[in-house]
Specification:
Layout lengths: L7 H12 L3 H24 L5 E7 H5 L8 E9 L7 H15 L9 E3 L4 E4 L5 E9 L6 E5 L6 E5 H14 L4 H18 L7 H13 L7 H15 L42 H22 L4 H12 L6
Length: 322
């Protein structure tokens, strides 16, 4: 191997130092969520008929795909559908009031504040927890309904099934799936820092990588894995529909439609998570992937270590030093 080559070990070391959320930090954050969940469970037990049913840890920390830069946590609070207001703003205010009641003595009222789409719980340590309401009608597998941020419509979802979906891919690729997801999320973060218009949501990243995992793509070494991801985006330009058969058959999928990107929620065949992306959003994403793909290829043939590092900085940002 040439001395100018960026090795898999160097990429893994950079991920551990810069990209990955340290295990002890992740556990501390999970402990914070558990405090909230256990207190809510106690309040529900002591107050039969309380409008909040349960709380589940969601988001990238729960999935094990979080970046070191995460500064808030996501949880879902399941609420009795018949008790809850219909309009989203009223629903969020209503949930905030229920949480203040449940956490009386644990948190001060000003630590629980309604936002546009969720309630934010602020710990004095500086950690924030975003609590998203899920309307619950008693279905199995924690299936409930979100109020869409984009349209205000009800979206069928399940925190538990989403977690199981990611865990299945991690089980199939126990050493590398989550790490490749985190590399791609880090790449997205660098692009957003450079371009305020760049769009690629966290869940979308996870599903693109999951799609490649299901196709049997190799996720090591990491340079090859990232070439697979960026190469897929460039080759197909995100024009083909991405969908999964974990929880429903392909026959339940609606027609492809005219949206520039179609990446279908594994739990809900009616929910295209990229439905709000424009043709310009897609072209910007494809162009960035093309730049990353070219940089990785160029790094393979660099004649000096410095040249190789500069190529990888196009992908991973200026903090990468080899």
């Amino acid at each position: 191997m040439s001395d100018s080559t960026i090795t898999d070990t160097e990429l893994a070391d950079f991920a551990e130092r810069t990209i990955n959320l340290p295990r002890e930090d992740a556990q501390e954050q999970r402990d914070k969520v558990n405090v909230l969940r256990e207190r809510l469970e106690k309040h529900i037990e002591e107050n039969p008929g309380f409008s909040l049913v349960k709380m589940l840890h969601a988001g990238s920390v729960a999935k094990g795909t979080a970046l070191r830069t995460v500064n808030d946590l996501d949880v879902a609070v399941y609420v009795r559908n018949d008790d809850a207001p219909v309009e989203e703003a009223a629903l969020v205010e209503w949930v905030a009031d229920r949480l203040r009641e449940a956490y009386k003595g644990l948190l001060k009222p000003d630590q629980i504040q309604p936002n546009t789409h969720c309630v934010t719980v602020d710990f004095r340590s500086g950690l924030s927890v975003d609590v998203v309401p899920v309307l619950y009608e008693g279905e199995a597998n924690d299936i409930g309904y979100l109020v869409s941020k984009d349209t205000g419509e009800r979206l069928r979802t399940s925190v538990r099934l989403h977690l199981d979906f990611i865990r299945a891919r991690k089980k199939a690729h126990p050493d590398h799936f989550a790490q490749v997801v985190r590399f791609v999320k880090w790449w997205v973060r660098q692009r957003k820092a450079e371009d305020d218009s760049f769009k690629c949501k966290s869940f979308m990243t996870e599903l693109i990588v999951a799609h490649l995992a299901d196709q049997g793509k190799a996720f090591e070494p990491y340079a090859d894995a990232l070439e697979e991801v960026f190469g897929y985006i460039v080759q197909f330009r995100l024009a083909e529909r991405i969908a999964f058969a974990d929880y429903y058959p392909a026959s339940q999928l609606p027609a492809r439609g005219t949206t520039p990107i179609a990446i279908i929620d594994p739990v809900n065949p009616e929910n295209n998570i990229a439905s709000q992306y424009t043709a310009s959003d897609r072209e910007r994403l494809v162009a960035a992937a093309d730049d990353a793909l070219g940089a990785i290829a160029e790094a393979r043939f660099a004649t000096t270590k410095r040249q190789a590092v500069e190529c990888w900085q196009i992908v991973l940002g200026p903090g990468f030093q080899g």
